[in-house]
TrEMBL record:
Descriptive protein name: Dimethylmenaquinone methyltransferase
Matches recorded under SUPFAM superfamilies: RraA-like (SSF89562)
Organism of provenance: marine metagenome
InterPro entries named in the record: RraA/RraA-like, RraA/RraA-like_sf
Length: 191
């Protein structure tokens, strides 16, 4: 897997200079790294109980394919954990094993035990029902300060989360491979 640092170097050169999410998004485990296409959800804060607080999330399950990465924008709301162990278990049954959110998550220990990858801004024991509501699905979102469209490529490692727009994905991969080969040659010469 290419590193987030290498990918951002390449995208900087292509004029895509703001593709790294805010550094406040951190992995729940130090060894977390993943890559795949984004499935997007946009959540908004609420103080009102909702008849179907998880409806959009369950709709998202129907659209998920193995290897997808769930990306949840919370619009600055960190009052509760929208994602947790039960949603991770349901996603894993669809072959989806990773989530990125600029909000809080819950059941972190259980998620870590099951090997579910997660980048978030913090933890909360509070359920999201009556505190936030997933409002839109598979539409562009801004998560961690970066615009993410459905199908954009999510790349995450210990240094952070990077979004590679779908339209330049192959170009970025090709240029990353070329740069990596050049760096490896320099390493060999220095050794």
């Amino acid at each position: 897997m290419i590193s987030t640092a290498l990918a951002t170097d390449i995208m900087d050169g292509l004029g895509h200079r703001h593709q790294a999410m805010d550094p406040s998004l951190r992995p729940t485990r130090d060894d977390t790294h993943f890559a795949g296409p984004a499935v997007t959800l946009n959540s908004v804060p609420t103080e009102q109980p909702h008849a179907d607080p998880y409806g959009k999330i369950f709709e998202a399950y129907e659209l998920m394919n193995p290897g997808d990465i769930v990306v949840i924008a919370t619009n600055g709301d960190v009052s509760s954990g929208l994602w947790g162990e039960l949603l991770s278990t349901a996603a894993a049954a669809k072959g989806v094993h990773n989530v990125v959110t600029d909000g809080a998550v819950r059941d972190v220990r259980l998620m870590n035990e099951m090997g579910f990858g997660c980048f978030c801004t913090g933890y909360s024991p509070l359920d999201s029902a009556g505190r936030c509501i997933p409002e839109t699905l598979q539409e562009p979102v801004v998560c961690g300060g970066v615009r993410v469209e459905p199908g954009d490529f999510v790349l995450a490692d210990f240094e952070g989360v990077v979004i590679i727009p779908a339209g330049i994905r192959q170009q970025v991969f090709t240029l990353c491979q070329q740069k990596l080969e050049g760096e490896n040659t320099v390493r060999d010469e220095l050794a």
